[in-house]
Amino acid sequence: MKAAVLGKRGRYALHGAMLAAAVAYPFVFRKPFPQDLAIKIFLFGGLASAWNVLGGFTGQVSLGNAIFFGVGAYATAVVQTHWGWTPWVGMVLGMGVACGVAFVIGYPCFRLKGHYFAMATLAIGEVFSTLFMNWQWVGGAVGVYIPLRDDTWKYFQFGTTKLPYYYVTLAFLVLALLISEGILRSRMGYYFRAIREDQDAARSLGVSARGYKLSAIGISAMITSLGGGLYAQYVLFIDPPSVFPMMLSIQVVLLAVLGGVGTLWGPVLGTVILIPLSEFTRIYIGGTGSGLDLIAYGFLIVLVSVVQPRGILGFFRKGGNA
Amino acid sequence: MFLPELAQSLLSGVLMGLIFALVAVGLTLIWGIMDIVNFAHGDFLMTGMYLSFWMYSLWGIDPLLSLPVSGIFLFFLGVVVYQLIIRRILGAPMLIQIFATFGLMILMRYVAFYFFTPNYRTIQHTFLSGSIDLGGIYLPVPQLAAAAGAFLTTGAVYVLIHRTRIGGALQATAEDREAAALMGIDTDRMFTLAWGIGAATAGIAGSLLSIFFYIFPEVGGIFGLIAFVAVTLGGFGNVAGAFVAGILIGVIEALAGHFYDPALKTVFVYALFLGVLFFRPQGLLGVK
């Protein structure tokens, strides 16, 4: 749709302007809060886009993406506490492990359809959370404190400024979007969508459904795991409730659904709307931990699903898909 | 030593399992009849628990007496939820349906959180206390009574579904919505009824649980997930299946908790769930 309105050159200009605005943002907003907010938006935007590759493009509704987030976070933390390596190695390692885990989960689960697949991934997510709670080598229920160091890129820790986290998470979001765009334009992207629309028809035309679904979950897992690693470095403390929560698995889906499932910008749009909303309500009406912010959040979700089941993007377009 | 221990955990498991069964029955009814996953089911149960708790602490009404109130209140809550939310998303994609009920779950949970605080509460003195000694095996009376109540309620739902005209209409709607409508069944009323009964059973289960279990805003999460597992194990929409599966889950939890590690007991339940999904997707009792 956008292409029709703006043309190719217009689109490049728009994307360039958005990127420039994002790069300039921390020089305008110098306080910690707006910078922290932007970092959360970039991080969740990337995670929601990663989910979108699997759940949106390919139509496999995963309710367990927190598994990959947790694996990435733990790999990044553990290589530092146990072997003194740099977190960057941990992130790469985490992506590899997450991809492996994704295949192991995907292989049996992709025989399931619809609700069954969603429930299976939800259950596996709970299993991971429980196992990490009881795995003493990685700190069990206590979690892992990443040892504090001076500000260096090698250990990716910055106590005095948020700027490095800001630009790295921005790069993370851009990467997730580029990968999504690449997939949408490639032959693989058409196969993904063919599987989503009608798996049996796709298979009868020679598309290996299981192979492409495994590719989708692998890509989704690696991006999500990278996000987990960045999160671990940003907060420097992780435990199972913070990196394996069911709530996270659900939230990334929510962001994508709110913005528009299966579209390139939907997950980002959902994130840009929902994350500031939840942060502001948390601060202004939920500051005392009363839960009022979450009441508003729940109400909003119900309202959106009842009023505009096609996501916010649905307000802008009448027909057509992705 | 081993045999009494085994018998003790088996029986405790069965008692808890009967509660799981009752929670699952409501969920399977909704799921089977209209193919909608209700993530807020555990929070219907939580509502029932708080209803009993407040009636007890404000007016001293015993949970056994507030139980019908809980059932009736939740019936109407279920009807309202169906009319206001679910009806509008019947034809929507699965994701939207998941999200509507998920949003409802957050809403209910944090309304409880806001008004009742996150504190754990218990009901201290009910009509029932003490335990029965069965030759070295001790069964606490509150649990026993709750399990008996759960058994009776589940039985009542079974009779309603399988022995009455309304039950027949519900089954027909589950079987084929359009054909049922052509036969003159008002499917919208059947859906409303399913949500009413589903929520009511969860509310009754909550009141029964409140006799001996901690009451807190997030309690629905535990029971909701177990109910999902029981529904899958029993076969979607299968009341008898949910009953058997609920008891099976209770027993597995008790055995794993007693003989292996209480912290890992849910892993066994989920492992069973995944195993059944992969190898017997029609459920343990289901027929292909």
Keywords:
heterodimer; A: 322 residues; mainly alpha; two-stranded antiparallel ribbon; 14 helices; 2 strands; 74% helix; disordered C terminus; B: 288 residues; ABC transporter involved in vitamin B12 uptake, BtuC; 3% strand
How big a fraction of the residues of chain A is strand?
A: under 5%
Give the neighbour order of strands across the main sheet of chain B.
Answer: 1-2
Number of strands of chain A: 2
What is the average per-residue confidence, as pLDDT of chain A, rounded to a whole number?
Answer: 87
Give the number of helices of chain B.
11
Q: What name is given to the CATH topology of chain B?
A: ABC transporter involved in vitamin B12 uptake, BtuC
Number of helices of chain A: 14
- Assess the beta-strand content of chain B as a share of residues: under 5%
Could you explain the architecture of this structure?
The complex is a heterodimer of chains A (322) and B (288). By secondary structure, chain A is mainly alpha-helical. In chain A, 74% of the residues lie in helices and 1% in strands. Chain A has helices at residues 2-28, 32-57, 66-83, 87-109, 114-133, 163-185, 187-197, 199-204, 209-235, 240-243, 246-259, 266-284, 292-307, 313-316, and strands at residues 144-145, 237-238. Chain A has a two-stranded antiparallel ribbon with strand order 1-2. Mean pLDDT of chain A is 87; it is low at 318-322. Chain B has 288 residues and is mostly helical. Chain B has one domain (7-113, 139-279): ABC transporter involved in vitamin B12 uptake, BtuC (Orthogonal Bundle). Chain B has helices at residues 2-34, 41-59, 63-84, 94-116, 141-163, 165-175, 177-182, 187-209, 219-234, 239-259, 265-279; strands at residues 131-134, 137-140. In chain B, a hairpin with a 2-residue loop joins strand 1 and strand 2 (137-140). In chain B, helix 3 (63-84) runs antiparallel to helix 8 (187-209) and helix 9 packs parallel to helix 11 (265-279).
